[in-house]
Amino acid sequence: MNLAARLTGPWRAVPILGLTQIIAWGSSFYAISVLKTHVAADTAWSAVLVVAGISVAMGTAGLCAPLVGRLINDRGGRMVMATGSVLMGIALALLPLANHPAIWIGVWVLIGVAQSMALYDAAFATLAEIFRARARTAITALTLFGGFASTVFWPLTYSFNELFGWRETYFIYGAMNLLICAPLHAFTLPQPAAEAAAKDGEGPAATVPVKLLQPSGLSFLLLAGAFSINAFFMSAFAIHLVGLLEHIGLAAAAAVAVGALVGPSQVGGRLAEFVLARKRHPIEVAVFTMLLMPAAFLLLAFGGAKVAAAFAIGYGVSQGLLTIVRGTVPLALFGPSGFAIVLGRLAAPVLVAQSVAPVAFGFALERFGTQAVLIGSACVGALSLAAIGFLAWRIRRSARG
Fold first, then answer.
1. Among residues 284, 279, 333, 321, which one has the least CA distance to residue 143?
2. What fold characterizes domain 3-200?
């Protein structure tokens, strides 16, 4: 299929959602890491209170995820994501008007509701509506776009803040969600079409097991547990990585440089999955993902500063792949029917784990020290490997039977 046909047919969903994911993630998640000190200085609130907003948002998104999944299943992803973008735009524009800590936190609750309707899980469910069982390639391609959200929005937020101030920056970001994301979701995404993907020749249908599993019981719990453990560390290290690297002996500038390797490694991992592993069953990619993370923790725990760069690359590849398998593994195991509901149920514990991770991980670092926390993290990470490995074994046994 030529490029023009892809951009006018169902495949246009990928660049459209790619752009809206960059804007939504950048404005609602990454911007606060640049603006937090300016917000705290301007409002005289503590930095902890300012950053607590993102934890509240993620926890709220987790609580709303099952309901949003049902809404997408019943009403379709287009209008749910468009509504989420409208709510996101309004909420971001309200942040600069918050003149009390309670109002600040309350607005972040609204942002969390919007995130549940506009970020990855909703986008994955929308792609599954369009491509049905053959959505794996589209999901992987979308994560390649999303991987650039921090790359784009960290310098953009810094520049906007220098030019206009943090309040005006959030006004601009609110307008971007209202004027760019909402119309794109509402009017340019293709209608669901089960037969469209088959015409694209996307690859073998064997990525779906012969016998689909029920999205309940032990299989569902194993998957939810493995995803939640990995999401916990993804969120924890997003906040504490640079400080942790300083604690193991790196200078501040070196810690920042090593931390900067994580983002490109995430994109590299996703690109490798797209090019090299697209014909492998997604559960195999998930096993590799769950193995790589605890291995990276142990490497840093015992290797120290001299292996910090290798740790950052391994950890980044793991987290880049995690974003993909969160969409592709449920699709392969449970099928496209009711996929939005399944994703919503899976997203609930994942987002709650992400919301508590920064505080819990920070407390553990202060209480037990860096090496002990890294070894403990590897042990907890091994539980996710055990869960996904046992699930893979059950799938193979079911296929033989």
1. 321
2. Growth Hormone; Chain: A; (1.20.1250)
Q: What is the pTM of this model?
A: 0.83
Sequence-distant (6+) residues with CB within 8 A of 76 are: 126, 129, 192
Q: Cβ-count burial of 328 within 10 angstroms (0-12 exposed, 13-18 middle, 19+ buried)?
A: buried
Q: CA of 327: how far to CAs of 310, 344, 346, 362, in Å?
A: 27, 11, 10, 29
What is the DSSP annotation of 369-392?
-HHHHHHHHHHHHHHHHHHHHHHH
Burial class (CB in 10 A: 0-12, 13-18, 19+), 100: exposed
- The domain segmentation of the chain, as residue ranges, is 3-200, 205-400
pLDDT recorded at residue 193: 58
Model pLDDT, residue 332: 86
Give the whole-angstrom CA distance, residue 301 versus residue 281: 32
Distance CA 16, CA 383 (A): 37
CATH topology of domain 205-400: Growth Hormone; Chain: A; (1.20.1250)
DSSP H helical segments within 305-401, as ranges? 308-334, 339-368, 370-400
Helix (H) / strand (E) element for 14: namely helix 13-25
CA triple 247-250-251, angle to 5 deg: 110
Buried b (16+ CB within 10 A) or exposed e, 169-182: bbbbbbebbbeebb
Distance in angstroms (rounded) separating the CA atoms of residues 379 and 385 = 10
Query: Distance (Å, rounded) from C-alpha 53 to C-alpha 108?
Result: 5
CB 126 within 8 A of CB 142: no
Please report which confidence band the pLDDT of residue 196 belongs to, taking 50, 70 and 90 as the band edges: very low
Give tens-digit pLDDT for 330-377.
988 888 888 889 989 998 898 889 888 888 888 898 889 899 999 999
- pLDDT at position 243 is 82
Q: Is the pLDDT of residue 202 over 80?
A: no
Domain 3-200 matches domain 205-400 at the CATH topology level? yes
Distance of CA 24 to the CA centre of its chain: 11
The residue that leads in pLDDT, 89 or 217, is 89
Beta-carbon count within 10 A of 195 CB: 8
What's the half-sphere exposure (Cβ side, CA atoms, 13 Å) at 278?
Answer: 18
Place of tokens 């998930």: 286
